[in-house]
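Sharing a chain and its predicted structure for anyone who wants a worked example. Both blocks are below, sequence first, tokens second.
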Amino acid sequence: MSRCSYIIMILPDLKKTIIAPATPQGKGALAVIRMSGPEAFRIFAAISSRRFSCPAHKQVSLVKIKAGKTVLDEAIVVFFKGPNSYSGEDTVEISCHGSAYIVREILNAAISCGAVSAGPGEFTFRAFLNGKLDLSEAEAVNALISSDSAASHHAAITQTEGFLSAMVSGLKDKSVTLLAEIEARLDDSDGLIPEADLNYFSDISEQIRKEVLSASESFKAGRHIKEGLKIVFAGAPNSGKSSLMNAFLGYDRAIVSPMAGTTRDTLESSIEIKGLKICLTDTAGLDSSAGDSIEAEGMSRALSALRNADIVLLLKDSSEPESKADKLAAGKVKDSICEGTKIIKIFTKADLSKHKRKRNGIIVSSVTGEGIEELKNKITENYLSLSAESASAITSARHYEALSAAAKELKELSFLLKRRNSPLELAAEHLRAALNCFGLITGETAPDDVLAKIFSSFCVGK
């Protein structure tokens, strides 16, 4: 399929009326079906027991839904008149019983009367096209649906309320004001406007750049808010990695055995600690040699997990003297991790150890729970500020790339303005390029293929 045909398929036809379930598939007490478009009220009237020629905005009614003469269900219906609806169009929301059969038949009845099935994210796409929200707010809707921790929820709900939009709007306003000053002098052939103060213009561009950099630099925190902290359990075979992961989770996720080498693959699970999503990865023991191809692959995957970790928990069995395997595991961890990855030394099996005092590490017991809370506090101590920062953090790689590109243009502009006899035409081009980057975030300059990609990641019915 060509790129052009893909875009044509994805971009919505606002002349059509769309319909889709807004609740997940499966049996439940209730299901919600949403219909939006110019013919929404007419189509609903055709499948209901009552004729709603012109329902009032936010009118709620109890109505029998029919397919021909067959009654499908008695449902609660809410009418929203455009442009005062989520999508900006006439909208009908049907709350029916959660039978898969009922939902399917209501959809079929509406489609037979002229509705078409909605594509992924098409209701929100129409809201964007109708000016109900900008692109960053639309993306925040999807992030809100996907949020799975207090921090990620806080970030998403703040962005749906327009925090990012307001910040970008402020940057655009300052840039437009500076551009207007420059263009006024470019158009002043009669010399009526005072000559440009390049030092002043350079200071203004630098101020804007610093604000842009401050926003883009929050992406590191934003990534942790959205994706979670990646914690990897590493150590020699039989050092207690799987037991500690189970103790963290509060249930038996990993198989535990006194035999070394039980874990041969990475095992992942997630929990929330103090509002932060924590992604845990149990790994195969780091041994000097692999006994077979499966063990070799397990070690390879363990090293790969280490390269992607934010924090590595390096485990050592405290009930045994330090072994060659322990030293080898510590060496492999240090050689594999990326710059900035934190290592926390953990001494396990405290319930079996006679010597409870250990330097530069935390003593834990997966059996008694000793040290588990201390370890959780240690993991989160450098990241607790993320919850507070979540309102202002950039959580989207796309937004980060746009801000970084804008900062680069503004840096070039600042350098240019500091030179003598700098061409103002080139300065104006740098400002226009920065404004284009800001427009990518809010949607004014986002190309159709970018829009198509963003909304295709939404669920159907939103």
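Comments welcome. The chain has 17 helices and twelve strands.
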